[in-house]
Protein 1
Amino acid sequence: MIGIISDIHGNFVALKEVLHKLDQLGVSEIVCLGDTAGYYSQINECCVELRERNIPTIMGNHDFYLTTDGICPRSQSATECLAYQAGIIKPTHLHWLAHLPRTAVINGLALVHGGWNDPLEEYMTPSTDYFSNREGLMFASGHTHKQLMWTDGVKHYCNPGSVGQPRDGDPRSSFATFDGQRFNLHRVEYDIPAVQRLMAAVGFSPRIAANLEFGLRIGAVPEIGLSD
């Protein structure tokens, strides 16, 4: 059984809980669908954990931003977080992120961060038309921060959601498993106040991590649903 994680975004507190749960489930391998970087303060710790465990990892859009110009084109808040990470990340981790593959196939499972039309930025919607001309039967991608399973009876797709910043209204970290034939979705609680304290300790406004309590994106307010 393979564990599938994505969109850690520097949230090492959440990553530890997810990996602990995957260890309990007895997975034989773990794969990461990208965005190790972005948003939260423990980018080095996340890189160490993935590298020491030899977890195959795909490049995500925030990984690309961090290793190039450091700018997220859609969010000033994300850019501010990337600037912080750029100032603290160790060169060996930056080099590792910069050389991650954009796609992979592992044990028959096709992997990408965004989508197969645009590995970094595509917010894809699975459909028979989308996958009809693509080689393979099993597919997984991240990027949306929302869990999803889809099948048309022939092709099968999974989005494991986000380890570090869920955006589906459930604050628990999300991930998936794959047993060679089917996907399963999982959630696990983690210490959100600890992440908020870490962010405050390095000078970030409380709003940067307040969203974690609600399972929403940065700037989102449950009452009115605003985001940046």
Protein 2
Amino acid sequence: MMQINKDKWQDVQYGKYVNHIEINETNPNVRKKARFVSVEHIESGNFKIVSWANEEMPTFFRTFKSGQILFGKRRAYQRKVAIANFDGICSPHIWALDAKNGLIQELLPFIMLTDPFYVYANANSAGTMSVYLKWPQLAKYTFKLPPIQMQKQIASLFLSVEKTIEDVEVHEKKLKVLWKRLINEFINNTPSFGNLLKDIELQKVTYCEVTEKVMRKIDPLTYGIERIVAGENLESEDFKIRTWQKIGKGYLGPAFHVLFMQGDILYGSRRTYLRKVSLADFDGVCANTTYVIRAKENLLLQDLLKHIMLSERFTQYSIGVSKGSTNPYINWKDLDNFTFQIPDIETQKKIVKVLDDVLIIIEQLKHQITNLKNLKQKLLNEILG
């Protein structure tokens, strides 16, 4: 861990070293061309603003400039801090901040990501349903301010960590694009997969011919099952089930009686545009709105089926046959007529290896990103906390 002598650091109040800018924009011609940023557009742990609204937001008037720090003062515990990379207009629930009096702008967002900052912010927020922080309270927050040269060194360190995280995230996103492109080219009207399908005879099949819905109704309490998986525990475009509830601790309603076993595919039948397809690596129970699926492996490998179900063609088909408007759902029989082409089992194994190898690298990059973010937070608390 970095050792820093803090003897010459000053105890200072936040409000004496940070300005919150309150300049409103009412000119309709300017507002017509502006980018509008809400709290929802700022991602926790991501300094970059990656999305915004182009249409006018009638309750948004406060301007911000490129380089200013944007901070979500409502639900401050979400740690929404961004460095603006363009000029725009933001929500009244966002502060645009500038450093002053010898605090360098580059260091400010890192001070605001330390654990002590959020302990203070949360303790001094008001409200119940939608807690918010007021400026007079935040202005009294105290922190240790390093000399200017040390500020520059610390900011440089954390900016380099941010750049490393960003580079790894870019690599991960590129690999994910490649993975999806390979799947979509395979599940196409004219399937392709590099040289693997050259001179290979393909068999046209319907979904019902190569899959089956598994319905094992049990009482999880007497069966000895420990984990409950609800729809919100399935993540979009992620085969791994990363969260669950525990029997006796989480809610167990009468619908949660469907046993799934390691190796089963779980498919969220509601809002199928969310692309919730998971491959279970443990036994548990789910609701009957989550389909438990097995491939008929004499025809189709289970490990290939999971990829097929995340293809664009499959997703669009499922959306097209879903029923309902506010909470669309799909019946099992609605999937019957989805058609696609598959090669022999040996070729399927080769395709699966390529796709799964890409996913292994993506998963390794996810762990690397997590480790880097944990290191960053540890350093933040050690140096600036």
Protein 3
Amino acid sequence: MQPDPAVGSDQHIRLHMHLGRDSLLFSLFVACAAGFVWFTSLGLPGSVASHFGTEGIPNGFMSHDAYVGFMLSFVVGFPVLLVVLTWLAMASPKARIKLPRGDYWLAHERRAETVARLRNSILRFGVMLEVFLCYAHWLVVLANEANPARLSESWFIGGLIVFGGGMLVWLIALLDHFRHGA
């Protein structure tokens, strides 16, 4: 992979160092998320209120072990699958990547750096997703501590708003780079 002379070798090196750092950060978040789900699930009851309807009233239950297994699979598996599949899809030189000023960014001499930047970005999104999924799990844990079990809808909606806002900032920053960077 040859660095783009217009981008400069220093920027090329920094971009790939960020890719390594962001990969490590994402892996750390995945491991911490797994530990968080495992540890916080220890005190859950034998029958866990796992699905909630209007006003936070539970309408679905799982055994403790099934809930923990599902949450570990979901909290770890979903973000990892999202990142890995995106990375694999972008690895192909024939991958259809749609970007502002795509002719410029996906030109042969800049494609590797563009893909590295996109990979860094998807890792950051994966971290945000990990945090949100752990937050949702934490709300389920808190809901199961109440008697009767009840999920705080306002906290859940607040979390969705914060996550949505974070996604919006992430997307605007990503698109802004490709619109104005160079």
Protein 4
Amino acid sequence: MSSSIFTDFRPEHARLWGQHPVMLQHRLHESPLFSDDALAALLHGYPRPDYDLLCMAPQGTGHLQEWREGDLGRAEGRAALEAIQRGRMWINLRHLHHHSKPHAALLDEIFREIEQRVPGLRSFKHNLGLLISSPGAQVYYHADLPGQSLWQLRGQKRVYVYPNTPPFLPEDQLEGIVLSLTEAEIAYEPWFDQHARVYELQPGQMLHWPLNCPHRVENHEVVNVSLTTEHWTATYRRAYAERYTNGLMRTRMGVQPDAPRLGGARFWAKAAVAAAVKQSGLMRKQKHEKRIEWELDPTAPSGRREIEPWVL
């Protein structure tokens, strides 16, 4: 983009960044990279390992058994886009920067500007995802491992952001995500909403929250298109290593680990264990399996049809 991505980034936002949720105005929704034609072209033939396609229960219900993974099948890009727009489903095109040079350039520009505006921020392992979701779609309560920002391009959605501390985020459940024993889900109780910060996200707005904050999303009755950006810092990487070893201690050794610490001799010993176990591949057999249960069908009223399940 030829001009600044943000239109209202002030000094106080830099001080809040990573410590409290921050909502800012941006210009990405003006980009031709996210027109219908561009979205249809991306959907057509997108590599299967790099997308998630999910259907879900109606809003107001917590039926996780209806949160099921699907496949684009043979649907053409435009037909796939129309089916997603009319069904209750959600697609996440992950690692978009690996498959599109213009989007890779945009990702570089985003973090170049953020690091210019937030003194001392040094990030790496940047990631860009594109979310297209149906009217009334929802994303259940979950937590992510990297630093996260959500950029609204079209439509409106309500985002609930919760504290990244117990009881909203128990250590053992976060460790399960780190060890890939689960995807990103954690236990949710309706009363948690009393302690959430709630944002109505409109096109041209982005939301950034502190590391690991649980969150959930409800679309308004309109098609939504959003970007997600992810990043790591040295501190985030240390937190990951600490919880990786803590998770091994809890699940494999039956030992109750101490509260996470990100420095000192004990931390470096744990970091060495985490690195050795990850390099050995010992935990690969324990990873959560992705089970594909339906296929996109633009001719079906729901936009999908059931298939014989298979594991990706």
